[in-house]
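Why does residue order matter? Because the sequence determines the fold. Keep that principle in mind as you read this record.
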Amino acid sequence: DQWPLKGEWLEQAHELVQELLQLGHIVPSTSPWNTPIFLIPKKSGKWRLLQDLRAINAVMAPMGALQLGTPNPTMILDSWHLKVIDLKDCFFTIHLHPEDCVPFAFSVPVINNDRPMQWFHWVVLPQGMKNSPTLCQIVVSEALSNICKTYDSIMLYHYMDDILLAVETESSLSQVFDSLVAKLQRYGLQIATEKVQSLPPWRYLGWKLLDSHVYPQSIRLATTVSTLNDLQKLLRTINWLRPLLGITTHELSPLFSLLKGNPEL
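Structure:
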């Protein structure tokens, strides 16, 4: 059942649903499935709509992670020319098969109960579905594969929707970048043009890159843990630091075992 949404929260839910309808991310539905939605206010003043898909994830076969970790940019050759690229709303540019849309349905209460509740389901990868990251990786990898074959002398790293392109000469960088953009567009993937980084310092997956040096970005390690969510944030940071410090997965296993609890705590 849908959790209660009242006042401003309900009004915002209706506004966000209308935006998602106009963007083609959801459609009206008669699905027998229904899992709750909730809203998160952002610091910018905007709101974010999320769906609680734990019940769906529990009966879904996991595809597993395709990448065991993040790529290390220290492998890039000295003085090569770089671009850091961020894909825009990657999940929302990848469509579900029509037969797979039905479980991702949700309902929205109407103001003052003056008509039946509205029912919708996602037609693109939903945020919170456990296989969405893996499917995103598959699509992005497929889109970039021919670029590497065409330009075999470049270095091209990607992790989820973050792409790092390194080319020996500046003139070649422009040519490869244009080809990369065209290839991504053929797969329906869009570049967030305002986030493209063409000049140093480049920031990529927690690293700061200069022309001939690579540094980890400043890291804030929150050691006060009072909730399960605090622990998740701490372990996310430690997991990123693990390759730098030589910490093994086995050594972290006692901490990760603590995650087996109620994620709402």
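The helical segments are 7-23, 54-58, 132-150, 170-186, 228-245, 249-256.
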